[in-house]
């Protein structure tokens, strides 16, 4: 693969639930500035891999390094602060909050979140909140959601909610974005709106790892593909190569 | 009559502080606490003891009260808020029971049921505040300050994080928020503010005993929050005003005491039931969106 060291490196990670080995000796690299597609049939362990990377699950063994630094075993908020953000399959938007508040929660507001500076450094807090608001509007513009800024997240149409789930993590400035099925449940028109968005993330310096079921989309979108089956990496490489492999298409399509 | 009205307003102010501070947990963080009367009592005892045994004044006593209140809350919050879910309700219930037992049984310090008499009145610039109407200004000043602190906390990035945690804790974690730390911080702030109400009460009545800080009192404070409306900052103040006004109005109806006391309980209970059915968001609560 690429000679450059990977920004995110998963090495020999294993995790079982009771008797089920959900992820087994899983090893792959995510290269900086590329879109990596994580594919595999249902139950292959894709979401488990996301949960392991982002600290929502602990691993039985293995190592996950972000720019060479071990992140396995860290709490989710620590992983995020080091630079890995994620979306959820079921979005998990803050439905009762406005669209812009959802994005503001991704913007840097360290002074405003600190109770002491809230009361003792009012000026700094105000300046920071203004910067966060500007940033949030800029992010909403990028995702085409500006005119929905003050609506409740729950009042958006589903495709817009999907965009919002990406927008709020984009706002964090974390370089590595993990997208859990960004196009699932969408009609083709909405997919056509999301796909170029994912590309533009990379243009803005992000690294993307995404879970996707739509094989055509994966070939079109990804720079590299990791094929997961029963918790193990069966193959990794350029999408065209992976798609040509008859063993893999058999597993995927059952033919 | 003026003294009577002044007393009513002082008590409304004290209960407003209690309800406002409890609402930081119930309304803004989605953490239900049954220990607010215990925290109230800790504030009252801490500042009374600081005055009686250490000769500290009202202001120093209040600082002690707020610190001890925050500390007691931290002791419960640190182990129980690390675990997701409703453990805090149980843990706070435990705190309430233990604290009340300490008030009643640590007789060397608290004099048990006999209570602590002779708590000095507060002084401000050498001027002793001992008239009820003077105390109205002091208590109302603290209520306004509490309101302002709550406003600042909830209308800020910090408040946004609280709401995010209340609505979806996992999403908040994924977005880099230290959920456990934020919950512990808000529990400590809520308790520090609740304890100042205890301090105000002790130096106002000048006598305290454990019966003012029972589990019933905790439930009463929670009722103020829920009836007033936990989604609005001023909801708890409305709740405090109304629920304290009910027994006063009953007094004017010339109902004998033997009937008035159970009547009051029936009215509280009835109000709770009616509100749960008709207006679960409370008097000042926002109507639910899209329903």
What does this 3D model show about the protein?
The complex is a heterodimer of chains A (255) and B (291). With 255 residues, chain A is α/β, with parallel strands linked by helices. Chain A has helices at 46-53, 76-82, 99-104, 110-113, 115-120, 122-142, 158-170, 188-203, 215-221, 239-244, 246-253, and strands spanning 8-17, 20-30, 35-39, 61-66, 69-70, 84-86, 176-180, 207-211, 224-229, 232-237. In chain A, helix 6 (122-142) packs across helix 7. Chain B has one domain. Chain B has twelve helices and two strands. In chain B, strand 1 and strand 2 form a beta hairpin. Chain B starts with a helix and ends in a 13-residue tail after the last helix. The model of chain B has no long low-confidence stretch (mean pLDDT 90). Classes of the chains: A alpha/beta (255), B mainly alpha (291). At the A-B interface, helix 2, helix 4, helix 5 and helix 6 of A face helix 6, helix 7, helix 8 and helix 9 of B.
Tell me the structural class of chain A.
alpha/beta
**Strand fraction band of chain B?**
under 5%
Question: What integer value in Å does the Rg of chain B equal?
Answer: 19 Å
CATH superfamily of the largest domain in chain A: P-loop containing nucleotide triphosphate hydrolases
Sheet having the most strands of chain B: 2 strands, antiparallel
Q: Strand order, main sheet of chain B: write it out.
A: 1-2
Put simply, the count of helices of chain B is 12
Mean pLDDT of chain A, nearest integer?
92
| Total domain units of chain B | 1
Radius of gyration of chain A: 19 Å
- List unreliable stretches of 5+ residues of chain A: none
Order of helices and strands of chain B: HHHHHEEHHHHHHH
Largest sheet of chain A: 6 strands, mixed
Structural class by SSE content of chain B = mainly alpha
Instruction: Report the CATH topology name of the largest domain in chain A.
Output: Rossmann fold
* Silhouette of chain B: globular
């Amino acid at each position: 693969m690429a000679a450059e060291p990977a920004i995110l490196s998963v090495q020999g990670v294993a995790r079982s639930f009771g008797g089920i080995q959900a992820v087994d000796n899983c090893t792959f690299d995510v290269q900086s500035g590329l879109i990596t597609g994580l594919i595999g049939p249902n139950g292959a362990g894709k979401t488990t891999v996301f949960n392991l990377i982002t600290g929502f699950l602990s691993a039985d063994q293995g190592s996950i390094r972000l720019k060479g630094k071990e992140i396995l075993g860290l709490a989710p908020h620590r992983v995020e602060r080091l630079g890995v953000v994620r979306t959820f399959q079921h979005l998990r938007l803050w439905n009762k909050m406005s669209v812009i508040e959802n994005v503001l929660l991704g913007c840097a507001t360290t002074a405003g979140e600190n109770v002491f500076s809230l009361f003792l450094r009012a000026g700094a807090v105000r300046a920071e909140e203004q910067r966060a608001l500007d940033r949030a509007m800029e992010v909403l513009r990028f995702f085409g959601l500006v005119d929905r800024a003050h609506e409740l997240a729950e009042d958006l149409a589903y495709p817009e909610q999907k965009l919002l789930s990406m927008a709020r993590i984009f706002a964090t400035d974390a370089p590595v974005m993990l997208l859990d099925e960004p196009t699932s449940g969408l009609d083709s028109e909405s997919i056509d709106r999301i796909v170029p968005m994912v590309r533009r993330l990379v243009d803005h310096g992000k690294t993307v790892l995404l879970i996707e079921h739509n094989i055509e989309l994966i070939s079109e979108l990804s720079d590299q593909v990791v094929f997961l089956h029963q918790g193990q990496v069966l193959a990794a490489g350029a999408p065209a190569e992976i798609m040509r492999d008859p063993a893999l298409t058999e597993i995927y399509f059952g033919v | 009559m003026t003294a009577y009205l002044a007393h009513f307003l002082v008590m409304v102010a004290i209960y407003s502080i209690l309800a406002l501070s409890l609402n930081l947990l119930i309304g803004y963080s989605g953490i239900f606490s049954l220990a607010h009367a215990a925290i109230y009592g800790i504030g009252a005892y801490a500042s009374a003891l600081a005055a009686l045994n250490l000769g500290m004044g009202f202001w120093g006593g209040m600082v002690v009260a707020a610190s001890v209140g925050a500390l007691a809350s931290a002791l419960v919050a640190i182990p129980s808020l690390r675990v997701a879910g409703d453990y805090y309700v149980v843990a706070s219930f435990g705190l309430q029971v233990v604290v009340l037992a300490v008030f009643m049984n640590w007789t060397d310090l608290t004099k048990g049921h006999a209570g602590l008499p002779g708590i000095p009145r507060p002084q401000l610039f050498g001027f002793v505040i001992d008239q009820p109407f003077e105390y109205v200004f002091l208590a109302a000043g603290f209520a306004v300050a509490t309101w302002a602190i709550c406003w600042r906390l909830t209308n800020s990035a910090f408040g946004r994080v609280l709401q995010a945690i209340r609505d979806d804790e996992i999403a908040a974690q994924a977005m880099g928020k230290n959920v456990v730390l934020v919950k512990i911080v808000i529990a400590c702030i809520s308790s520090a503010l609740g304890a100042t109400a205890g301090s105000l009460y002790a130096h106002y009545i000048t006598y305290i005993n454990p019966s003012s800080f029972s589990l019933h009192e905790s439930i009463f404070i929670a009722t103020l929050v829920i009836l007033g409306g936990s989604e609005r900052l001023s909801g708890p103040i409305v709740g405090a005003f109304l629920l304290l006004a009910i027994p006063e109005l009953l007094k004017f109806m010339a109902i004998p005491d033997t009937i008035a006391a159970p009547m009051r309980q029936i009215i509280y209970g009835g109000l709770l039931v009616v509100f749960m059915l008709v207006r679960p968001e409370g008097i000042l609560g926002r109507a639910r969106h899209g329903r």
